[in-house]
Specification:
- With 361 residues, this protein is mainly beta.
- The chain has one domain.
- The protein is built from 5 helices and 17 strands.
- The protein has a 5-stranded antiparallel β-sheet. The protein has a 5-stranded antiparallel β-sheet with strand order 2-3-4-16-8, with no helix packed on it.
- A hairpin with a 5-residue loop joins strand 5 and strand 6.
- Keywords: Signal.
- It comes from Podospora didyma.
- This is DUF1996 domain-containing protein.
- InterPro entries: DUF1996.
Length: 361
């Protein structure tokens, strides 16, 4: 299964938008940029909480970087109306008070100390404060109706404890790393995520212009449960098709959901000096979970769109400029903050990762 949704992002999103207008080009066999939401979500905070997996636990076992609405708290009950509780969002579209989060990337020096790797803004989203780029997509054949997530909906992709490929081949294939050795390249702009230019684990060589990590969430829902004990069983990947929004959903999960993609780009430029890398030739990056392989990359999602805003956007196949939605500038989004409830050193050179997880390959 090749993942093609964001194969043109982030490079063509900016380059062609400048040349052809903000909607970008039409790509034969795929969506144009006017056909899917692509937007900035700046950093809300970076701390050890996880209202999905360890609700109420502060600090949680490992560090997360979190974006979205400021209703964020260590415990967020499914009955909570996030869009009514939040007063601002770090995302471009002001009706999106959802929370999105991932693990945090660290560099391990050969002397054993750790340094958090900062996130960098994406092309076409200059001014973003850390955070990530988020995508929502409806099937681009425009024949299949997608149903927006319901209040209280939440899900998880990946597992922080994986140190080998996910037992679900679709989940495994939905995660990809790309090492930029030239500005946003050298991969061709139309190279598919998960293709020959990507790896499923940390790259073994320096990435002087950044490291991009993508993950695609499942697109099929059981139509009943907004969550499940493992935060995965209520959703599924399609049973057929080369791309999630094309294949048929399994009979157990017949309802088609929007395709969500997280795109995080880590600014690894300060860590390319090989004299800092391990002497045994291994790569030096590690996630905040203690994962030195990259297999444990994961993403969490709590739905918090206001009213029917997301459904309207999906019905109209909205893109970067979506007249169906209210929008704020990235500078305005950057003003939305939420004080951390767990305060501990996370910057500068540290003797151990926050929470001191066990390092493992």
């Amino acid at each position: 299964m090749k993942l093609r949704l964001a194969q043109w992002a982030p490079v063509l999103a900016a380059v062609n938008a400048a040349a052809q207008g903000s909607t970008g080009p039409y790509i034969p066999g795929g969506p144009s940029f006017k056909d899917f939401l692509r937007f900035s979500c700046s950093e809300l905070n970076i701390q050890r909480i996880d209202p999905l997996v360890t609700p109420g636990l502060a600090p949680s076992p490992h560090l997360h970087q979190i974006v979205g609405g400021n209703a964020l708290a260590p415990r967020m009950d499914p009955a909570l109306n996030i869009s009514a509780e939040a007063t601002c969002t770090t995302c471009t579209f002001t009706e999106d008070f959802s929370n999105y989060w991932t693990a945090v990337l660290f560099f391990r020096h050969r002397n054993g100390s750790f340094h958090r790797v900062p996130l960098m803004e994406n092309l076409g989203l200059e001014g973003q404060r850390g955070g990530m780029t988020v995508y929502y997509t409806a099937p681009y054949d425009k024949k299949t109706k997608v149903i927006a997530f319901k209040p209280g909906f939440r899900m998880l992709i990946g597992d922080p404890m994986y140190r080998e490929p996910s037992p679900d081949p679709n989940e495994f294939k939905s995660i990809a790393f790309r090492c930029f050795t030239t500005p946003w390249g050298p991969a061709p702009a139309n190279s598919e995520i998960g293709g020959s230019w990507d790896t499923r684990t940390f790259p073994e060589t320096p990435c002087p212009y950044g490291l991009r990590v993508n993950n695609f969430f499942p697109t099929c829902w059981d139509g009943v449960n907004v969550d499940s004990p493992d935060h995965k069983s209520h959703v599924a990947y399609p049973t057929t098709g080369s791309f999630e929004t094309e294949g048929a959903c399994p009979s157990t999960h017949p309802v088609r959901l929007p395709q969500i993609l997280y795109e995080t780009i880590w600014n690894t430029s300060a860590f390319n000096d090989l004299s800092m890398w391990p002497t045994d030739g291994t790569q030096p990056f590690v996630f905040s979970t203690g994962d030195e392989t990259g297999y444990g990359w994961h993403g969490d999602y709590l739905f918090g769109w206001q009213g029917d805003a997301l459904q309207r956007a999906m019905d109209k196949y909205c893109g970067v400029d979506c007249p169906e939605l209210k929008k704020q500038t990235i500078a305005e989004a950057n003003k939305c903050t939420k004080a951390a409830v767990v305060n501990e050193p996370i910057d500068g050179w540290l003797g151990s990762l926050p929470g001191n997880p066990v390092l493992s390959r």
